[in-house]
Design goal:
Number of strands: 15
Protein name: HAMP domain-containing sensor histidine kinase
Order of helices and strands: HHEEEEEEEEHHHEHEEHEEHHEE
Structural class: alpha+beta
Radius of gyration: 49 Å
Organism: Antarcticirhabdus aurantiaca
Strand order of the largest sheet: 2-1-8-7-6-3
Keywords: Kinase, Transferase
Helix content: 40-55%
Strand content: 15-25%
Largest sheet: 6 strands, antiparallel
Distance between the termini: 41 Å
Shape: rod-shaped
Number of domains: 3
Length: 451
């Protein structure tokens, strides 16, 4: 079971929700304590006032003078539950009502009373009446020559709890509204705070699609080092790609001269009577070109920043093929929108369609058609000729590396397997079918360059 969500937004929002909830619970408890303390302090002042009245009514021996004792307004209503009592040193008791069930004086069970200029102050306590209802009281013990006189003024605990219950609902409602506001603020803060990460993702996608060369360096300070590392990685990949291209070119140049020399030697009379050596040399040449193209295409597939306009590239290739095959008088129709760009290097595009167009011009009777259309995030380019075409079995055989249908006098040469690999390594594909004219239709799918 996974406790933490995978997204940063979910984790941070969950953490914000937990901390907000903990803060609100703490605030509710703290405010409740403050309110209770405020209500109890007010009640204590009213009880202390009654104790002061009774203390002034004491005689020197510690007994109460009933004529001088009177009830304050809170104690005047016998049904209100407010009570007082006085315990004299000689054991006599005076009460405003019956039913007080209070513990005896015990300094260990209650906080000591404060003293003001040497005079004792009342101390708080909790007790019950005869019916078991909780009471809050204040107690004052005054020393007298014959012993200590105890004065107690008590009020129902409901005097404290009633206002707290009345304040609880508005308090909880206010805290709930505050929690909702904090949750909305946290959600908005996270959306705005994480927006640069979304922009960085879009920038990386733009680099991969060819719309940008680097990730914008103007980033928040927290992700600026990441943008700098990404740009350094892009530069490193481009440098590696350039180095790989140089090695491929050097290898091709290094092999070209020995192969040409061998071909010249084999062309001498008596060197290759049955042509088998020339055929083997031609096969070596084809395989070298095939694997060099594959290696270059693999490096290009890892490059970033690829973006090539399709119509100009194919228009130039069609013009070249028209000149090369001028004796065949093949008409070429180009139906490619101006605004289509593919995420393929121009060199790859030239080699890919150079092979396909060369085959089409060599086998067409009178016409070659090149069309292109968008399909989701891909571009489909179709090259059709009106030549003899290929059967289904021949089409499958033509795409196998090393098959040479042209040696049997039929087929479309060696370039199609290489073209297929280049298309696949650039994120696309190649398929063969029969054109409406009966010739061969080659469909190439290539990734569409993102805007």
């Amino acid at each position: 079971m996974r406790l933490l969500p995978r997204s940063l937004f979910g984790r941070m929002l969950g953490l914000a929700a937990l901390t907000t909830l903990a803060a609100l619970v703490f605030a509710a408890l703290a405010i409740g304590q403050v309110l209770e303390r405020f209500v109890v302090d007010g009640l204590d002042r009213r009880l202390d006032a009654q104790i002061t009245v009774l203390a002034r009514a004491l005689r020197p021996d510690g007994s109460l003078d009933p004529a001088r004792a009177f009830d304050l307004p809170d104690f005047a209503d016998p049904d209100a539950g407010w009570r007082w009592l006085v315990d004299a040193p000689d054991g006599r008791r005076w009460e405003s009502g019956e039913g007080l069930d209070l513990p005896p004086p015990d300094a260990r069970r209650r906080p000591p009373g404060r003293r003001r200029e040497g005079a004792p102050e009342p101390r708080p306590g909790e007790g019950t009446d005869a019916s078991g209802q909780p009471l809050h009281y204040r107690e004052l013990v005054l020393p007298r020559p014959g012993g200590a006189t105890r004065i107690v003024a008590a009020a129902p605990r409901e005097v404290v709890e009633g206002p707290l219950r009345e304040a609880a609902m508005p308090l909880l409602l206010s805290l709930a509204l505050l929690g909702a506001a904090l949750a909305g603020a946290a959600y908005l803060q996270l959306r705005l705070g994480l927006r640069p990460l979304g922009a960085l993702r879009e920038a990386v996608a733009g680099v991969r699609a060819g719309g940008l060369r680097h990730v914008p360096a103007d980033q928040p300070s927290e992700i600026r080092p990441l943008a700098e590392e990404l740009n350094a990685l892009i530069d490193q990949n481009e440098a590696g790609l350039a180095n790989a291209r140089r090695h491929v070119a050097n290898l091709a140049h290094g092999l070209k001269t020995p192969l040409a020399a061998l071909q010249l030697r084999l062309a001498e009379p008596g060197r290759d009577a049955d042509g088998s050596l020339a055929a083997g040399l031609s096969d070596i040449d084809r395989r070298i070109r095939h694997h060099l193209a594959r290696a270059r295409a693999a490096h290009l597939g890892e490059a970033t920043g690829r973006r090539t306009a399709l119509r100009p590239a194919l228009s130039d290739l069609v013009a070249v093929m028209t000149k090369i095959h001028a004796e065949r008088a093949v008409q070429a129709d180009l139906g490619i929108p101006e605004d289509i760009e593919v995420a393929v290097e121009a060199q790859d595009l030239d080699e890919l369609f150079g092979n396909i167009l060369d085959n089409a011009f060599r086998h067409a009777r009178s016409r070659v058609a090149v069309t292109a259309s968008r399909i989701d995030r891909l571009v489909r380019v179709t090259v059709e000729d009106d030549g003899p075409g290929l059967t289904g079995a021949q089409q499958a055989l033509t795409l196998l590396p090393g098959q040479r249908l042209d040696e049997a006098g039929d087929g479309h040469g060696f370039g199609l397997p290489i073209a297929q690999e280049i298309a696949e390594m650039n994120g696309g594909g190649l398929a063969l079918s029969t054109a409406a004219s009966g010739g061969l239709a080659v469909s190439i799918h290539l990734p569409l360059a993102r805007g």
